[in-house]
Amino acid sequence: MNDSFTHKGMRKKLVDTVRSKGITDSKVLAAIAKIPRHWFMDSSFLDHAYVDKAFPIAADQTISQPYTVARQTELLEVSAGDKVLEIGTGSGYQAAVLLELGVELYTIERQNELFKKTSRFLSKIGYKPKKIVFGDGYKGLPEFAPFDGIIVTAGAPSVPKALLSQLKIGGRLVIPVGKEVQEMWVYTRATATEFKKKACGSFRFVPLLEDKN
């Protein structure tokens, strides 16, 4: 896998852009600087790899805008060793950022094409989640709960109760909620039955799809 001085220079500019938009977490910025985003996209789209925008990938999904990845990761407030659940593996780029931060990552993908492709690819480039699951993100992974953090990388029409129930006390759920445009919400589990929530700006995501079977 090629990662040239040109690529690294483009990543440096991308980090400057993300920082200029308000990202301050040094570990998140370091992960963005380190990970070759162009590896997660078709080689013919190199010109788009280090522009701060989302881009289409397989199965009618997208690789999220780098600022969005950085913002969600920053809002999650993870520490090395934290147990984190990602809903929507997608290209694997967000997973790689989380793994750079040293978390124990569990990730779910409902598109079989992406699940197979990304599972192989992450292993190939040295990123190893604790578990990659083909399944319905609405249900979470109760068998591995509770989690210190849960991150949802697609727009949900509402907050799945199953995900809230799988947070540890003090754990955080970062989730975009809405249809055309989503509001980013952070839910923090205060007690067994109480959650604090905070709105953190508007974003655009592909929809979070639920298995109705």
Describe this structure in words.
This protein has 213 residues and is an alpha/beta fold. It has a domain of 149 residues: 3-Layer(aba) Sandwich (Rossmann fold), CATH 3.40.50.150. It is built from seven helices and nine strands, in the order H-H-H-E-E-H-E-H-E-H-E-E-H-E-E-E. It has a seven-stranded mixed β-sheet. A hairpin with a 4-residue loop joins strand 7 and strand 8. The longest helix is centred in the first third of the chain and has 16 residues. The relative contact order is 0.13.
CA(first)-CA(last) distance: 40 Å
- In DSSP terms (H or I, runs of 4 or more residues), the helix count works out at 7
Instruction: Just name the CATH architecture of the domain at 55-203.
Output: 3-Layer(aba) Sandwich
Structural class: alpha/beta
Q: How would a crystallographer describe the biggest sheet?
A: 7 strands, mixed
User: Into which percent range does the helicity of residues fall?
Assistant: 25-40%
Global mean pLDDT: 93
